[in-house]
Amino acid sequence: MTTEERRAEVLRRLQAATQPLTGTRLSRELGVSRQIIVGDVSILRAEGQKIFATPRGYIMPEDEPSQQKVTLVCQHSAEDMEAELNAIVDNGGAVLDVIVEHPVYGPLKSDLLLESRRDIKNFLTKMKKCQANPLLVVTGGVHIHTVRVPDEEALTAIRQELQALGILVNIA
């Protein structure tokens, strides 16, 4: 299989997938190293493909026209991260990403695609295992989430719970 054929196969598998695919799984199935897959995905992204790297693997999310995406500005300590994420998913939202404004590098974004408490648990377990600091440590806890919600009712519930937790930043 040529490099171009392998990249086309990676793209085909991602387009057909209903769940995230890990680089390890793709590398095993295609008979190359995981690093080759990482490079292939980077090149596909550079070519304009919407491929997201999440804690569960690579995915090409489908656009859901009946749902809306909103940004929420939050501020809290690393200890409150689980409560924040649970408040969003428990009220019907999905946390698509996190963005912080680094003083030197500018905006830093990480795709999350957290849709359930199980996703959150896996994400936090991976953070702990890797001894990784959340991006919010760069900005004193201030960060932005892009959140997908099914309707205004869910968005209102999310905002109310985050406000009750003292996490939502009111922008006047």
TrEMBL record:
InterPro entries found in the cross-reference section: 3H_dom_sf (IPR035922), 3H_domain (IPR004173), HTH_11 (IPR013196), NadR (IPR026043), WH-like_DNA-bd_sf (IPR036388), WH_DNA-bd_sf (IPR036390)
Keywords: Metal-binding, Nickel
One Gene Ontology molecular-function label: metal ion binding
Gene3D superfamilies: 3H domain, Winged helix-like DNA-binding domain superfamily/Winged helix DNA-binding domain
Location of the 3H domain: 73-168
Pfam families: 3H (PF02829), HTH_11 (PF08279)
Organism domain of life: Bacteria
Positions annotated to bind Ni(2+): H76, E84, H143, H145
Domain Helix-turn-helix type as annotated: residue spans: 6-59
The name this protein goes by in its record: Transcription repressor NadR
Natural source organism: Selenomonas ruminantium
